[in-house]
Amino acid sequence: MFIPAFESLVFLKLGNPHAALYLKREELNKDYDDQQIIFLGEINEKFYFTYEVDKTKKEKLISSEVDVKELVYFTPLLSKFDSSILSFSRSLVLWHHQNKFCGVCGSKTKSIDGGFARICTNEECKKVIFPRVDPSIIVLIYHEDKCLLGRQERWPEGMYSTIAGFVELGESLKSCLEREVYEETGLNLKNIQYKYSDPWPFPGSLMLGYFAEAKSTKLNIDRDELDDCRWFTREELTNAIKSKEIRLPLTSSISFRLINEWMNNE
Asked: Is the pLDDT of residue 227 over 80?
């Protein structure tokens, strides 16, 4: 089975529910070669591959039943299997798209190892590069009977979520968590507890989720990072969601899982 992709977009069969677009080998155009095909793996005795289409081929695949979409907005409308394999496909295709040239000498690179690596074609260089995973933390902060949620200006109207940030060079996960929270909210933490990890393929992160207790509720918000940041009791958060004053992240996200667990554990 072959899964087409276009840059950061995925192809979906529209319906109720939506589904990934799978093509058989005979449905591919003959001008695809092994360099463009990426092997995803074998699942239930079926082999899955992905590949990137250009603008012309993209238009040919679009119809009244098929369209290209940003996966992040459609994962709740897909089966767990389709969501997972499209996330994997999207991450690999985008990585190949962004690494066609060597970062050491500037020469062209080519795909090797079934698409799980690229190698510089310069015989004097031959630098091998691999898809990278960027670790990041995401944390639900609480104090007594309240939790802290914030929002960024670029987010959809009314959406609030947990605090998150990328791990920097030389940092432990705990150090990253404490730094990010202090920089964005001015809070110091205690009782840091690891909860979950999830791949977040936008484009290639590993999200590590935590609970952490704030030593106080006094905020010093970095307005360059957060448009707003508020403390909510469980009742206040429930009422704000019901009245549509605020909206939570996608149910497929690790941030939603953290919030939902806090809401249901008094």
From this structure: yes
Helices of type H across the chain: 55-61, 80-98, 173-185, 234-242, 254-263
- Stated as kind and residue range, the H or E segment containing 110 is strand 109-112
**DSSP string for 147-162:** EEEEE-TTSPTTB-B-
16-38 exposure pattern, b = at least 16 Cβ within 10 A, e = fewer: eebebbbeeeeebeeeeeeebbb
Q: Which of 169, 249, 175, 251 is nearest to 210 (CA)?
A: 175
Per-residue model confidence as pLDDT tens digits over 161-209: 999 999 999 999 999 999 999 999 999 999 999 999 988 777 678 999 9
The predicted pLDDT at position 30 comes to: 64
Residue 91: which of 50, 55, 129 has the closest Cα? 50
Q: Are residue 213 and residue 244 in the same domain, yes or no?
A: yes
What is the SS3 assignment for 40-59?
Answer: EEEECCEEEEEEECCHHHHH
Q: Give me the sign of the Cα torsion angle 9, 1, 198, 67.
A: positive
Domain count of the chain? 3
Strands 134-143 and 205-214: parallel
Q: 172 with 239, same domain?
A: yes
Q: What is the pTM of this model?
A: 0.79
Answer yes or no: do 165 and 253 share one domain. Answer: yes
C-alpha span between 101 and 107 (Å, rounded): 5
Write down how long the chain is: 266
In 3D space, the residue among 201, 254, 252 whose CA is nearest the CA of residue 50 turns out to be: 201
Contact 48, 82 (CB under 8 A): no
Phi (first) and psi of residue 227, to 5 degrees: -75, -30
Distance CA 149, CA 246 (A): 10
Range of the domain at 122: 99-131
